[in-house]
Amino acid sequence: xxxxxxxxxxxxxxxxxxxxxxxxxxxxxxxxxxxxxxxxxxxxxxxxxxxxxxxxxxxxxxxxxxxxxxxxxxxxxxxxxxxxxxxxxxxxxxxxxxxxxxxxxxxxxxxxxxxxxxxxxxxxxxxxxxxxxxxxxxxx
Length: 140
Description:
Elements: H1 3-10, E1 15-21, E2 27-33, E3 35-37, E4 40-46, H2 50-57, E5 60-67, E6 72-82, H3 92-105, H4 112-121, E7 124-137
Antiparallel strand pairs: 1-2, 1-5, 3-4, 4-7, 5-6, 6-7
């Protein structure tokens, strides 16, 4: 399957499963909400989660997107880059998380100061997944 076709299909969705590799080689999966920005999947994650630790060790991942209503799915193979952890409400990571929030929800947060503080308190960062290949079945 062409990656461009799969990305176009995934652009109409926002929920997926990110599959990373544990230190013992077994897969670990996490439900995620993504934003698709010019062919790159953007996800908000926290520094202390298993998926983040796995990706720091090995940036290879699979992002699986499905649509039960149409019996369609795509699995993207790719690599991940991790932004620095948010440490200041006005840092570049918080700016990226603001953009992520607005794109995913389609609206502004009611209290940006509170949101930015929460991103620092939760030790959030941005994950950027670049797909290299795609497999799956798109119907309809």
